[in-house]
Amino acid sequence: MPRKVAAGPVDPVRSSAVELFFDLVFIFTLGRLSATLVEEPSLLADAQAVIFLLAFWWIWYNTNLATDSLDCERPTVQILIICVMLGSLLMSINVPDAFGDQGFVFVSAYLGIHLGRTLVMALYLRGTPAWRRPVRGVVWYLMSATVWFAGAAASGGEARVLLWACALAIDYSGPVLGWPVPWLGRARANEWHLSGEHLNERYRQFIILALGETILATGNFYRLSTRDLADTTAFLLTFWTVVFLWWTYFYRTTSSLAVKIDTAVDPYRLNLRASYTHLVMVAGILLTGIGGELMLKEPDAQRSAGNVVAILVGPLTFLIGRMIFEIWVFGRLTRHCLAAVVACLILSPVAARLPPLAVGLLGAATITVVAIFDLTHRARIAGEVNPVSAGDAHRRHSA
User: What parts of the sequence cross the membrane (predicted)?
Assistant: First the structure.
């Protein structure tokens, strides 16, 4: 089966304009999540933010799988993506209120997106070996829908968090288990024909989107501050950290992901691993922005363990996500990344006694050291690919 169902004269690799348009809603989404956590920091708010992030990522990830199979130049497919965008926007608007009186609106939008998209996929894929994919998806989303709506009907915030966490566990475990459905069985590798270049580009675009939103949010927070020396230092530390997060991702992390997906025996499972680990990296970027905003709020405050959780854990989470990504996808362990993670964990008790700016400096320094080692590794690999031996150089000199 070709990658694009009912394909026309479209580029099979590059992202389409409607996909980039669809991504815009997630700038608003990430902003809403970070603003909610900064305004009301608490364990319950943290748990709710995790629920929101998992729900939005699952929409983005599965929509990418749909656009990887469909021709995005067709008006009907574009309308589908725009409808997903509208539903995602409705969910984003109700981010702080979904655990209040807007729970049914949030759940209806979430399930409407998934069920609508999978039904359209079933229509487009009929007559191909892949038609079982969306049919299994419909069954699993109907199964999780009962738990989603039970959570929306729950009166307490803690009960809603617990039930929605169970619903997300069903959604996320479906592909891991192969979407088993009676009479259809489990999904098989030959049902998936993925484009590594397209999916790799989509991951890179979302990382850019998350980094950009973090810079915009931090810049806006700095604009509203007193802009004294402490505020300026906090702003520059956050900007510095975000820049080197970008560096470590684009100069090392996904350089061979496209080839790896294209040559994998089970490309869907490999892409699923890439998705889960990218989710961790996006969470790290989001936490880095939140830490920057908290530094701007109280740059000189002497805070306790909250310092570490809010500021240092952002780069740490990103590095953990990158490390797991490289192990799961490429089967390699980057030793300097592991060393940076271990160092952050060891220094966390010390950092808990430091003011926010000092903790921010520690996080920025950690990600910078990793970036420097990445650059050194890149230069060494480039030299090995096209080596110039001393003997060759001597012969040319003699000539």
Answer: 20-38, 44-63, 75-93, 105-125, 137-155, 161-185, 234-251, 272-292, 304-321, 357-375
- Taking only the tens place, the pLDDT of each residue in 256-305 is 888 898 888 888 889 999 999 999 999 999 999 888 888 887 655 555 45
Q: How confident is the model at residue 183 (pLDDT cuts 50, 70, 90)?
A: confident
At 92-108, the pLDDT tens digits run 998 878 888 888 999 99
Average pLDDT over residues 387-398: 40
Q: How many CB atoms neighbour CB 1 within 10 A?
A: 14
Highest mean pLDDT: which range of 44-48, 196-200, 310-314, 347-351:
196-200
pLDDT of residue 290: 87
Half-sphere exposure of residue 264: CA atoms within 13 angstroms, side-chain side: 27
Count of residues making up the chain: 399
CA 310 to CA 360: how far, in whole Å? 10
CB of 275 closer than 8 Å to CB of 207: no
User: Helix 267-297 crosses helix 356-385 at what angle (to 10 degrees)?
Assistant: 140
**Which residues have CB under 8 Å from 269's CB, separation 6+?**
189
Say which residues have a Cβ less than 8 Å from residue 319's Cβ, sequence separation at least 6. 248, 284, 337, 340, 341, 344, 366, 367, 370
Give the pLDDT confidence score for residue 36 in this predicted structure: 79
Q: What is the largest CA-CA distance in the chain?
A: 85
Q: Is 131 left (phi over 0), alpha (psi -120 to 50) or beta?
A: alpha
Q: What is the pTM of this model?
A: 0.87
Count of C-beta atoms within a 10 Å radius of residue 349: 10
Mean pLDDT (whole number) for 316-331: 92
d(CA 333, CA 158): 38
Distance CA 365, CA 392 (A): 41
For 143, other C-beta atoms within 10 Å of its C-beta total: 14
Q: What is the DSSP letter of 252?
A: I
- How many angstroms from the chain centroid is the CA of residue 102? 25
Q: With the CA atoms of 13, 216, 60 and 156 taken in that order, what torsion angle do they form, in degrees rounded to the nearest 10?
A: 170
Do residues 88 and 59 lie in contact, with contact meaning Cβ atoms separated by under 8 Å?
yes
Residue 168 has pLDDT above 60, yes or no: yes
Element (H, E) at 59: helix 43-69
Cα distance between residue 7 and residue 15, in whole Å: 15
Cβ contact 317:283 at 8 Å: yes
